[in-house]
Amino acid sequence: MLSFTLKRIAQLIPVFIGATLLVYFLVFATPGDPIAALSGGKPMTPATEAALRAQYNLDQPFWIQYGLYLKNLVTFDLGMSFSGQPVADLLGRAFPVTARLAILALLIEGVFGIIFGVIAGMRKGKFFDSTILVASLIVIAVPTFVLGFVLQFVIGVKLEWAKPTVSGAATWSELILPAMVLGLVSLAYVIRLTRTSVIENKSADYVRTATAKGLSRNRVVRVHVLRNSLIPVVTFLGADLGSLMGGAIVTEGIFNVPGVGNLLYRAILKGETPTVVAVVGVLVIVFVLANLIVDMLYALLDPRIRYA
Amino acid sequence: MRFSHASKAVALSAALALTLSACGGGSSETPEGSGDAQAGDTSYIVSANTTEPQNGLLPANTNEVGGGRVMDLIFTGLVSYTADGKTQNELAESIETTDSQNYTIKIKSGQTFSDGSPVTAASFVDAWNFGAAAKNAQLNAYFFESIKGYDKVSAEKATEDKMEGLKVVDDTTFTVELSQPESDFPLRLGYTAFMPLPEAAFEDPKAFGEKPVGNGPYTLAEWNHDVNLKLDVNESYDGPRKAQNGGIDFKVYQSTDSAYQDLISGNLDVLDQVPPSQLASYQSDLGDRSVNSPYAGNATITIPGYLDHFKQGEEGNLRRAAISQAIDRQLIIDKVYQGGKVIAKDFTAPVIDGYSDSIPGSEVLTFNAEAAKKAWADADAISKWDADAELSIGYNVDGAGNKEYVEAVVNQLKNNLGINAVAKPYSSFKELREQVTERKMTGGFRTGWQADYPSLYNFLGALYGTGAGSNDGDYSNKEFDAKLKEGLAATDPAAGAEIFNQAQEILMKDLPAIPLWYQAVQGGWSENVSNVEFGWNGVPLYNEITGK
């Protein structure tokens, strides 16, 4: 298990370098001149322009730019944003907020998704099952920004149960509403995945054996059905963590959450390469680690899976 | 301050994160203001929306609204602007000149920065020299170009860092020599770039930009990046813009949509930009707590003179006149902006002193499909426009509302001129500006201007003067340049304005840009505050706002 884990973590290095190179190149290749945008279309003296280009290495060819970036990276210098702030500071502010948001969303979709999914699966074809199926279909069909605006308006403005936007501290309790919006679509998928998986395992031999042995229904469902049904669900949740962190742009925008999604969006528009690469780099690490955890959970869930 | 990214006023490239802080909105914990209720609660802390300042807060490096509105509150210059764009003396005791070229400026004595250090003549001279010097790479450096000796300090790799046109006479007096007479120089002195700096600023400008020490009606107490900027009242400030509230809490919003939700739920006091999605309903939502007032900005379309068929001269001018007359501006204003703009009648804006809505030749800005067709046909007689040729109008999709109005314009060109006009999207502002500055545009494109200071010249010189920094269409007309120079040399701004309007007559014939409409600010405020007024540049006069 240990050597497996180490091997997987070692894989991070080539994945990370490959991803940053690719992203660096993509930002480099997008059309547009960041310095022209910085001046806002106003005149700029040639001296100012030249100084700014030199400051961000924009006067260098691609390989030198990337080389300089890597060189600084080794000393944990992530570069500067166009506003003159260290990118590390930007990340340090935005990532904890987004991490809280993503974890909350993951909890919401994991806990409620599995509970609803198991109930629906065990009562296949009954009223609860049909209701859940229809409801989840609606949630999947409605775009996130519609859900977001509606929930914000109803809960934040009309009922005043919560403030419509999140404060600078972005505390756990403030993030519940945004996390619900963010997690809702995945919640629908988790329900459907769990349900299908439960239905399949319900008629498996070992479940029949367990029932025949006289085990309580509770224990049969929890230990024999659920545990074996979780593998596809855990795979989905693991992959989803990364998407929740990187793909929360819409939700963050609606609730004014100072997170990674908007940091990335703005950096791309401005052509601020160091920020884009740093954000994507961290997201890559999150993805890889989440997958590693998923793989280790397999072994816990299914004793037949072993890692040498 | 700069080209608007979005067609809507002050939307900037960066909208940033976050917000609501604990002490915002409805939580005025202060007791009833002593004295009369009319005056409102002057200890109330007002919350207002903003975008994250794009750079450290240094006067010569702040060229956008997010930083500009804060700078104007924590600093004060020689003059400031009233709501209707008039200048009023702040630190200046007098600004005297006899020839519009040599100015003697006396400042009030006994003024201090909020850290206690004195504001002297040197505070101005050093700050301006710092702003102009090449080695400091300040975005607003070109604002000092009129001052004698600017060329030497601003050249690439310049070693000199003091402009010879600036001389300190004594603690409260300095002289400014310009390289040519410019009558509107005193009008510029209220712009952010011309603010004074304390000596401490020059030791470590970068650190100073994070924690600026100014001399304005407020001090910057806290700046939580991407979250908020908290302003406290500066008790030592003694000028015309004294704070009528207990401080301002600027909340950084990523989108005006979320700010609007906070406004209508009472979690935000002042919003200076209603989102496009709410334009149809904000007046019924807010009633008398909303405003729709014009400010010093306009939207234009530039069809550059380097395009075939659009070169400066008879054919190009006819075609531009045809395009201008083919656009039914009022229809677009009503449909796209719910009436929230005002038809343009000149190249400047109505809140500026000297503005005229009846400049000879301005009928070319009025919708007239017949005249448009005729002008286009006349141009065809000179050189035939290929019926299949495409005329594109470029816009950047990252600005809210751009697509809607550019497509409306394009449709009208199609219908009224019968040409193959298309709206050409650019993925970002930086892409559009790159193509524009490299002169690679293959068609027209959206442009616009927001005044830095209230003067006709600010709208004309930088945009249409030969070789000027923002002359995106490469327009050049000797007659026009001469008029500009003449207007600048006038002994007083009023006489200058008259000449600038004569210069505009030339623009009406050449149409280096096609004016569409003047910008207007759509804003609103909560039930917690009163006395909210918007200034000549569309920015609220924050210092006058009181609690209820």
TrEMBL record, chain A:
Segments traversing the membrane: 12-30, 101-120, 132-155, 175-193, 229-255, 275-301
Sorted UniProt keywords: Cell membrane, Membrane, Transmembrane, Transmembrane helix, Transport
Main location: membrane
Membrane topology summary: Multi-pass membrane protein
Subcellular location: Cell membrane
SUPFAM superfamilies the UniProt entry points to: MetI-like (SSF161098)
ABC transmembrane type-1 domain residues: 95-298
Family membership noted in the UniProt record: Belongs to the binding-protein-dependent transport system permease family.
Cross-referenced PANTHER family: DIPEPTIDE TRANSPORT SYSTEM PERMEASE PROTEIN DPPB-RELATED, DIPEPTIDE-TRANSPORT INTEGRAL MEMBRANE PROTEIN ABC TRANSPORTER DPPB-RELATED
Protein name, as recorded: Oligopeptide transport system permease protein
TrEMBL record, chain B:
Region forming the signal peptide: 1-24
InterPro entries xrefs: Peptide/Ni-bd, SBP_5, SBP_5_dom
Keywords: Signal
Top-rank taxon, per record: Bacteria
PROSITE patterns: PROKAR_LIPOPROTEIN (PS51257)
Solute-binding protein family domain: residues covered: 88-470
UniProt keyword Cytoplasm, yes or no: no
Record PANTHER family: ABC TRANSPORTER SUBSTRATE-BINDING PROTEIN (PTHR30290:SF83), PERIPLASMIC BINDING COMPONENT OF ABC TRANSPORTER (PTHR30290)
Protein name: Oligopeptide transport system substrate-binding protein
Provenance organism: Glutamicibacter protophormiae (Brevibacterium protophormiae)
